[in-house]
Amino acid sequence: MDCYTANWNPLGDSAFYRKYELYSMDWDLKEELRDCLVAAAPYGGPIALLRNPWRKEKAASIRPVLEIYSASGLPLASLLWKSGPVVSLGWSAEEELLCVQEDGGVLVYGLHGDFRRHFSMGNEVLQNRVLDARIFHTEFGSGVAILTGAHRFTLSANVSDLKLRRMPEVPGLQGAPTCWTALCQDRVAHILLAVGPDLYLLDQSACSAVTPFGLAPGVSSFLQMAVSFTYRHLALFTDTGYIWMGTASLKEKLCEFNCNIRAPPKQMVWCSRPRSKERAVVVAWERRLMVVGDAPESIQFVLDEDSYLVPELDGVRIFSRSTHEFLHEVPVASEEIFKIASMAPGALLLEAQKEYEKESQKADEYLREIQELGQLTQAVQQCIEAAGHEHRPDMQKSLLRAASFGKCFLDRFPPDSFVRMCQDLRVLNAIRDYHIGIPLTYSQYKQLTIQVLLDRLVLRRLPLAIQICEYLRLPEVQGVSRILAHWACYKVQQKDVSDEDVARAINQKLGDTPGVSYSDIAARAYGCGRTELAIKLLEYEPRSGEQVPLLLKMKRSKLALSKAIESGDTDLVFTVLLHLKNELNRGDFFMTLRNQPMALSLYRQFCKHQELETLKDLYNQDDNHQELGSFHIRASYAAEERIEGRVAALQTAADAFYKAKNEFAAKATEDQMRLLRLQRRLEDELGGRFLDLSLHDTVTTLILGGHNKRAEQLARDFRIPDKRLWWLKLTALADLEDWEELEKFSKSKKSPIGYLPFVEICMKQHNKYEAKKYASRVGPEQKVKALLLVGDVAQAADVAIEHRNEAELSLVLSHCTGATDGATADKIQRARTQAQKK
């Protein structure tokens, strides 16, 4: 164990720091790192180098080369830089390389050097040029902060949703600040800068002078500043050689350390572990590396060659021409197990397991000691946790064997944590491989999440990403399907391959994989300017609701209409129709509809409710006189209030019906015109309301008003049949209860409807007396029914017996009730009996 802790360095009494090698770098650097612009992505991300940047001593004819390497030094991309001078490089959270140029333009490249997009930081930056830039990360995304030649700051907190903010001016600032950085406080990005002995904080609206709490006196300048990985803490390096460490708000001081070096450091970054109370800063000069914290002493390392620091969530990566190392605080579980003379439960369990493999009885002694203290569960958990923080697979196995050994002596230890750690370490060891080059720690892996890691593996080693999904048994939507979709989105960006080949390759790889949306892949292809490829990919999309919106966006509206009609989704068809209506001129739009009968029918339905004039134009274009006539009839009542306008509209409708050879509709329309004119005349002569009444209602209204002759004349004019007229007059007179006039009417001539309706109407008005008058006049075939209506059951029985009609006898018998009609019922039964004997 003491050999294992040989690279542990104490910082004070409570923490150890260790530095171990991640990779031996085999990259062939022709220049020192100091002569390049360098950017390394966090979470074991790639390294970008821009060789031969624009310097005065370099020949102007030499073009710089942008190179991208994995963290293990394997080349990923190399391209000759053909754009303007670059001021700064940085990686976004999505592992896109942001190249900030002197003119304020930002070029975005992918992991393999593929150009993604370009955006500008504004006209002011263009006019004043860029002096310095920072790429920073917030919870909203990756941001860019710019210092211009006019000593003003401009920033965007999220380059994916570019919103430029011009920061307030610093009073009296004549030159560039000695150092500055971007902070994120209360979900808002700020700028902290140093001008001599003064610090200024720029927010959205104001510039505020700030003073670090508890700063040692005598400071005349701040030479370097560093913000922690989580943006919660800040470190300031002063010209007196002191390093002040505190909260990012500058209101609380954690510690202050005198490093006795006044030369400005090349780099200064934080080195802290999540949930750890220790706070440390790593400071690098040309050949010296120093770790300082809340302790009187520091840890110092000699740098044999030019190195670069990359702050991480739980430590610092340090790479040079030959090596790539990781410096971090030793986790508590590892410290308790491996420190010299440790009696922690995990340490005893590890020793017990080793002795067990040697078949030594000491294994039982160690194990009994742990069990007597009741710490076996804690020992197993310590070994599992420590295994996660080990980089070497042999140490991982040793610790997991110890945990497995201890589990055998526990009755109810849940296996989930052990199994999950084994799975996580297998994944971590696979991605840490030199050929993959993602040196994630366990803490970084958990913070990054497996989904993000898989997305990053897609661009490095697709088969490995799929194997990890299958090994972890992730659901299709989160695992293989998601990876294949991500791969396809990258595939469409390969512009050196034909559209046909890319579409075929994607379909062969994806097939009908559940959870994969071809429309999302097509949208990415369209975003890359490959419209034809997007259309080919949409052919594989089974959901029309996903096809159509993208086709509309690509201005392939007619194809979108065909797809919408094929789907049978009327809402989708309406969406396309309204889009086409706004996109095409009226003539082209109508011609398009003529070729699509279903779309034309749906659009007519829409126009009936929303655009009547457009509907009329459609009927005119199609020479559809029948529908045009119907349209004018509806319009005459919906739009026209004046009688003249209504009649004119009806005349137009009649003409259209004649053209359609529908004489019945034309005659009916003309009759309606005559009725309207007559109703207007009746209103003028008699008063009251006649307009818009039907013919029958008009006749009824005249009868109710006592204008019988006018009603009869109207009936003759419009050839109302006698039966219908008698019904109308009968109903009207009964409603008026004009029984005398009704009797005269019944005697005026023989009733064409018979006299049973008179009986029914009178009984409906509860006038049995009048009803009996007409019951006697009812014909023999309806006599029984009439007598029953007026309640004369006995006479109805006599008539039924006389007719010898079984149906009538049964009907009368059904109306006989109780003792009142008992004699009648007996009479009917006797008549039935006699009829049966005969």
UniProtKB/TrEMBL annotation:
<keyword id="KW-0175">Coiled coil</keyword>
<dbReference type="InterPro" id="IPR038132">
    <property type="entry name" value="Vps16_C_sf"/>
</dbReference>
<feature type="domain" description="Vps16 N-terminal">
    <location>
        <begin position="4"/>
        <end position="420"/>
    </location>
</feature>
<dbReference type="InterPro" id="IPR016534">
    <property type="entry name" value="VPS16"/>
</dbReference>
<protein>
    <recommendedName>
        <fullName>Vacuolar protein sorting-associated protein 16 homolog</fullName>
    </recommendedName>
</protein>
<keyword id="KW-0967">Endosome</keyword>
<keyword id="KW-0472">Membrane</keyword>
<dbReference type="Pfam" id="PF04841">
    <property type="entry name" value="Vps16_N"/>
</dbReference>
<keyword id="KW-0458">Lysosome</keyword>
<keyword id="KW-0813">Transport</keyword>
<dbReference type="Pfam" id="PF04840">
    <property type="entry name" value="Vps16_C"/>
</dbReference>
<feature type="domain" description="Vps16 C-terminal">
    <location>
        <begin position="516"/>
        <end position="833"/>
    </location>
</feature>
<comment type="function">
    <text>Plays a role in vesicle-mediated protein trafficking to lysosomal compartments including the endocytic membrane transport and autophagic pathways. Believed to act as a core component of the putative HOPS and CORVET endosomal tethering complexes.</text>
</comment>
<comment type="similarity">
    <text>Belongs to the VPS16 family.</text>
</comment>
<feature type="coiled-coil region">
    <location>
        <begin position="349"/>
        <end position="376"/>
    </location>
</feature>
<keyword id="KW-0653">Protein transport</keyword>
<dbReference type="InterPro" id="IPR006926">
    <property type="entry name" value="Vps16_N"/>
</dbReference>
<dbReference type="InterPro" id="IPR006925">
    <property type="entry name" value="Vps16_C"/>
</dbReference>
